Amino acid sequence: MSAPSAEPPATGADLVRVVLVKAGRTKIRYPARLLADDGERVSVRAPWAADGVRDFGFVRFEPGDVFTEHYWRSRWYAVKEVRAPDGTLKGWYCDVTRPAVRSGGDLVVEDLDLDLWVSADGTHVLRLDEEEFEASDLATTDPEAATRATRALNELEHLARTTGLTELTAPAS
Q1: pLDDT band at residue 51, thresholds of 50, 70 and 90?
Q2: What's the whole-model pTM score?
Q3: What does the pLDDT read at residue 171?
Q4: Which of 38, 98, 135, 166 could make an S-S bridge to 110, C-beta 3.0–4.6 Å?
Q5: Cα 10 to chain center, whole Å?
Q6: How far apart are CA 56 and CA 45, in angstroms?
Q7: Torsions phi, psi of 59, nearest 5?
Q8: 56-76: b or e for each residue (b if 16 or more CB lie within 10 Å)?
Q9: CA-based Rg of the chain, rounded to a whole angstrom?
């Protein structure tokens, strides 16, 4: 979910396909440029992958937006830095997910409904989709995953309200 930039188009080993699965079905699939994979965290960049504009009220995702996305193999979330076409930081959209799996050219992530939005200046931290999470019945069908998902959302919110998400998404040194 990122946007056009001055970088040349991704090809071959630089290209991965992000596959977002929800409730056992593929929700969206899109190409992304592989930025780094250190064995634990996979970072990619992609343009906004949906058609048209998505206005959430607190942020608008639109064609030209650039998403730098960070997925972990052992953490239950993904953090996506969102920038406007001119490079202005809009904020961070965080998805609570099962740990990511990279298989061949695919990076597969299972969305667990809970999300967090953090504005660019860090003053607005919004927990999202908690009703969807409750309605999913994950607490009954997979109680351990539901507990991990709730912990992940709490961890992300704590980081956003204390140290911020910049350190979490900084390039590996």
Answers
A1: confident
A2: 0.89
A3: 80
A4: 98
A5: 20
A6: 22
A7: -160, 150
A8: eeebebbeebbbbbbbbeebb
A9: 15
Helix (H) or strand (E) holding 28: strand 25-37
Joined tokens for residue 113: 């409904």
At residue 77, does pLDDT exceed 80? yes
Q: Burial level of 165, CB count in 10 A (0-12/13-18/19+)?
A: buried
Quote the tokens at residue 51: 């058609």
Residue with tokens 């996506």: 80
Going 51 to 87 to 127 to 55, the CA torsion angle's sign is negative
Q: Which amino acid is at 8?
A: P
- Position 167 confidence tier, pLDDT thresholds 50, 70, 90: confident
E strands within the chain? 15-22, 25-37, 41-47, 54-55, 60-61, 66-72, 77-83, 89-97, 101-103, 106-119, 125-128
Cα–Cα distance measured from residue 153 to residue 128, given in angstroms and rounded to the nearest whole number:
10
